[in-house]
Each structure stands twice: as structure tokens, then as C-alpha cells.
Amino acid sequence: MLGLAGAAVAAGLVAAGLGLPAVGGTGAAIVAASDELNLNPAELIEPPLAEKTTILDARGRRIAQFYDQYREVVPLDQVAEVMKTAIISIEDSRFYEHGAIDLEGTLRALARNLQSGGVSEGGSSITQQYVKQVLLNAATTREDQEKALEASYGRKLNELRYAMAVEEKYTKDQILEKYLNIAYFGAGANGVQAAAKRFFGVSAARLNLPQAATLAAAVQLPTSTDPEGGRENRARLLERRNVVLDRMAELGKITTAKAAKAKTAKLGYKGVPQPGGCEASPYPYFCLYVYNEVLNDPSFGKTRALRERSLKRDGLTIKTTLDPRMQAAAEQGIGDWVGPTDNAVAAQALVEPGTGKIKAMAASRKYGNSARRREISYNIVADTHHGGIGGFQAGSTFKTFTLLTALKQGMKADDGFTVGNSYRAPDYAAFTDCAGGQVGDPTHPVTNDEGSPGFKTLRTGTWGSVNTFFMELERRVGLCETVQTAQSLGIKRADGKKLQEYETFTLGINEMDPVTVATAYAALGARGTYCAPLAITQVTGRDGKPTDYRPKCRQALEPQVADATADILSGVFTQGTMSSVGGIGRDAAGKTGTNDDQSSAWFAGFTPDLAGAVSIGDPRGAIAHKLNNVTIGGRYYSAVFGATVPGPIWRDTMIAALRGVEPTAFTPMNSERFDGCGRYCAPLPPVTEEEPDDTATDPTEPVEDSTEPEPDPVVLQ
Question: Which segments constitute the Penicillin-binding protein transpeptidase domain (predicted)?
Fold first, then answer.
């Protein structure tokens, strides 16, 4: 009697859900039970499906993708008819004939469940299955996930309430489309489009009969039939596929002959990789930069966690600035000079003047976590804000900021003064940082690594990269003023800490990254217009609406000051430290940089069309592992300077990257304003430490204190 009563109530629920009339005494009991249980439609909250985000290069080609669930939502008209037929045949053959629930199927399942004493057969309609998948996908905790899957009449009742509302809200085709896009097929594929690509390497629109039957077979038991699970799983999937084919023939959807022929086909699973994350990108360092740009941008979410969720679930299409041709040039330029397993690592960034667009980011080591393969697990081309860890001291590339400051203050190209081979601050008050602190240290000598002592001008001091000249030049124009010039061009430490403002600032004591340095030099190529580094140009949401990201630029330098700087720095190629390396066949300017005892080396240069910066150093620790007596790229070097390896990398890269680009000439220097000399024309006789001149009144000369022992010199170039 209890079993009969239970069956009557359950049947009553079904009847009420379908809106069937109550008949006789049993009908009255059914209606009463329905009223008591409040079996009315309940609105289903349908969060947007998790979709993969795609990263594109400047030409619109995919370079990376991010996802929690690999899925591509497609409209129903982009799904093969045979796929629709197969899934309906095996999952809900009366889908277009019944309402929220299939009465026949549910009663059949109910009878079996009552016999077993539990829920052993579902009998769910496609609409109910869609509801279950929505609840499962919306679950944020394990408890919610288990609740969405529990085998209970309570869950089935809730599903029915939601299904009734779904049937009222959507057409049958809309429900089928939603189901096909949310269903999990196994092998990490969510939705029919991802499954078609993962299983067979085709789109959902091109599925054939055996393939469609296979995917329809996978839906009910996606774990035990997951082809990635091994031979037994594949055998179960094949067996289940044949059941689908038989059911399609039984329903008259295909002929028996077609079913028999399709059953002879092999499983055909290809397991097409659908890699995600920067590890799988052909351009991992640029990918890391974009990834961190999103995580740092509040427009993608209020918190970092929400931004990452958006990146992996919101189905964004992110177009970037990366130029594949220039990227190839950067990779080749590095690869010709530095090997992937060398202790020293070269890194390079290319930036477009006037926009700040990052065109390329490359390094000699592969990105990854394998110590055996000597991979690097961080972004060595960028700062900590974009996945880096600290960078290398930029060396004499920072002398450019002192040169700029001198020109801003009215000095001319041939202004100069006499310097010795060693320099000491005249007193402790000789240099003042931007906080007003006195940082000059007369006990701390700086010597020249390259360049001879004597009378040096802005031109010759720069071409020879004379340390003692730039120390005195910085003293004259001001340490803080030099720091401020650098900051106006976006200079900040790669580790995110405050810039070190000591008298050796001009010698590049701060750790930098190639993106930041390249962007600063790009401003010179743009006649003083500084544009912040730009990696993302457009983001399109799942609604198809694009949001454009435009360059953020400002006039950081007077154009004529930038022109004069470019004129002087162009001589580095013809008469300076890069003369042995040579130019690139068009207007170009730049500066070498070598740090104390070759702990690291740089070259930064620019044209009006493209700028780039190259660093090289040992990531095990640049100070402990200097670039002396080393083999790099199969070549032995007793010492590595800026023009030894970084310079040639930059030259080769720029020649290839700019091939086919019409050359743009530098704007000539304003001769009337900057040519010749002004305040500092007359050479002063040099004063050496061996012949101290106690009567000298010029504070530029090094002074030897005979009462103190000679400290070890600091040598930077």
C-alpha cells in the first residue's frame, strides 16, 4: 500500500508538472500533493557559461588562451544536424513532443527506482539535464557541487520546477542549443564545439555520423568513457557509440544499413591539444606581460582574484600589439649570439616610438619550470609588475639621462671640461638627491673602464662613455634633476622599489628591465613624446562589443632637446663604443652599458620607427657570476661589454625587424641652439691623482687624500 501511495504521489507530481487534468480519487490526491509541495515553475538563474579567453597578435592570430573550462559557445545553426539528431535520440527522443518532463520516461524510471529502493535511473529530459548542468556550473563550493549531483527526489523536484520555467522562457531549439554548449563530453572538453575539436579536430558543424554518435555517447558517462583515460575507457566509448547508432536506427533517424556501416568505423579519437596558459604560447614572455596587465587592471574586476576569473571564464578576445615578424627578428637576433643553455641570459624588448606599443619580447632561455632544460620560470624581459623578479643594473645606458638634463639646461654639444682617469666627489655636499639629502662621498672613487682622460665634451664624453666625465656632468646639472629626467621617461626599478639616488646614478646602478628601458629610448625616437608601454589594443567581450585601448602619451621632453640627443647618440655608432659593430643602414642612435667588472651589459637604441633594449647577465646572481672569461653562444669572451654581445644583438634585430619599413630620418639638431660650445668651451689642464694640485679651484678634479689608504675603485662603463 505504501509503495502504491508513493507511486500515486510521484505520478501526481509528474501530472501536475505537465499540467494534466486530475481524474477521480487518485487525481484529487495528486492535486493535493502538488499543492502541498508547491510544484510551480521556479526561475533558474543562469550565469554566463565559462568560456576560454583568446589572446591575439597584432594581425589577429591566436598566440595564447586562458580558461578554467575549455569551451567555445556556438549557435545551433553551427552544429551539424546529425549531431542534434544523435543527442536527442539517445538522451530524450521525445524532446520536441513533451513539456518540462517526459512523462513516459519518468514513469518508467520511477518504477525502476521504486523497485531498487533508490534513484537508479534518471529519466531526465534534455531540459532537466540542462538545469542540472547550470546548477553544477554555478556551484562555487564542493558542498554545492555535491548537492547539484545528489541522487534524491528533492533534487529531481527542484530540477522539475526550474525546467518548467525554462520551457516557458525558451523555445525547444534554444534549450537544445544551451544544452549542447554546457554539456561536458570528457577529455576536458565542455560544449559540443570544444568536444568536436578535441576529439576529432573538426568544428561541430562538420561532424559526421560516427563522430556525432561518439559525442552523444560520451555525454552520459563522460568520466568512464573519457578517451584520455586509456584503452578500457575507449572500448566503453566505442560500445556506447554503437548503442547510440542502434537507437538512431530504431527511431528511424538513420537506416539500419547506415548504422551498420557507421559501427564499423574506428573510434577516431585524435586528442587534439587545446593548451592553455603562457607555458603553451609561442611567445611566453609577451603572454606573461599581457596576463599581468589584465590582473593589474581594475577594469577587469575589483580584485585580482576577480580579474583572473574574468580572464579564464569570460570568453574575452584580447588583441595585442605583438608583431610576429618583429618578434621573429628579436628571437633570431638573440639566438645568433646567445645559446639557450648558456649561464648568461639575453633579453630584448622592441617598442614603437610615438605609441609605446610593445612589438616584441624575447629571451635566450625558454620559459618553463624545468631546471634540467635550464628554463626560466619568470618574465626576464619585464618588471615585477608583469611577472619579472628584478632585472639587471642598466649601466651606462643611464648616461643618456644626464646628457638630456645638460641639454635641457642650455649646454651645447661641444661644451665640456677636463677630467682625469679617476673621480671623487669634491665633498659630501657635492650631490643632492630629490629628498634634499647630501649623498656625495669623497672616499668613493670612480675610474674609467673605457675612454681616456682629458678634455671631454658632451659629444666625445658620450661617444667614449667616459665615467669621470659623466660623474662631473651630473654634479653640474644636478643629481635630482637627472633622476627627474629619467622618471619623466618612465624609468623605475624593475623590482618596484624606489630608485637609488646616489652620485653613481648616471652610471646605471639601478636594476632595470628591457621593456622599461626600450620605452624610455623610444621617447627619444618620438622627439620627446613618452608613451607608456602598451600591450593590449582591444578587448571584445562575449557580447561582441569591443573596447579599444589607446596609447597614453605625453610630451616629456622638448622636441629640440630630443633631436640634439639623437644627434649626439648617433655618433656612438660612427665614432664611439659601437663603431666596431656598425650601424643598421638608416638613422639610428643608442648607448652601450657595462656594469662594474662586467656584472651585466646592455645596449639601448632607437630610430624614429622602432626602439629596442637588450640586456645580458647571469640570473644566478650578476654580482657573483660576472661576464668575465665566459663562453656565450659558443664564443669565448675574456670580458663582455655593451658592444660585445648586446650591441650586435640589437643591430641584427633592428636590421631584420625594419626590413621593408621605409626609413624615417631624425629631425636635424638645431645648430644655432646646440652646436658648438657655450659655457664650458676652454679646456682645463688635467689634474691626475699622481700629481695633485692643491691650488686647483675647479671642483671637477679628483683630489687625493694622502692621509687615507686608497680604497678599491668602482669601475662602470
Answer: 350-617
Residues 588, 606 contacting (CB under 8 angstroms): yes
Residue 72: burial class (beta carbons within 10 Å; 0-12, 13-18, 19+): buried
- CATH code for position 660: 3.40.710.10
The reply to whether 404 falls in a domain is yes
Question: Which class for 599: exposed (0-12), middle (13-18), buried (19 or more C-beta within 10 A)?
Answer: buried
On whether residue 496 sits in a domain, the answer given is: yes
* pLDDT tens-digit readout, 632-675: 999 999 999 999 999 999 999 999 999 999 999 999 999 999 99
Q: Which residues of 128-152 are buried (b: 16+ CB within 10 A; e: fewer)?
A: bbbbbbbbbbeeeeeeeeebbeeee
Q: Strand, coil or helix: what is 160?
A: helix
60 and 84 assigned to the same domain:
no
Same domain, 471 and 588: yes
CB-based contacts of 522, cutoff 8 Å, min separation 6: 351, 352, 353, 354, 356, 531, 606, 611
Residue 89 has pLDDT above 70, yes or no: yes
Residue 597 lies in a domain: yes
- Residues 480-494: tens digit of each pLDDT: 999 999 999 999 999
Question: Residue 363, exposed/middle/buried by CB under 10 A (0-12, 13-18, 19+)?
Answer: buried
Q: Cell numbers for 590, please give them.
A: 643608442
Question: pLDDT digit string (tens) for 8-58?
Answer: 344 444 433 333 333 333 334 334 444 445 678 889 999 999 999 999 999
Q: Are 394 and 499 in contact (CB under 8 A)?
A: no
C-alpha cell at 69: 573550462
Residues 138 and 220 occupy one common structural domain = yes
- Mean pLDDT over the full length of the chain: 87
pTM of the model: 0.83
> Are 569 and 584 in the same domain?
yes
Same domain, 256 and 282: no
Write out the residue range of the structural domain in which residue 533 sits: 392-674
Q: Which phi and psi angles does 590 have, rounded to 5°?
A: 180, -175
pLDDT at 596: 81
Helices (H), 117-227: 126-138, 142-149, 153-169, 172-182, 192-200, 209-220
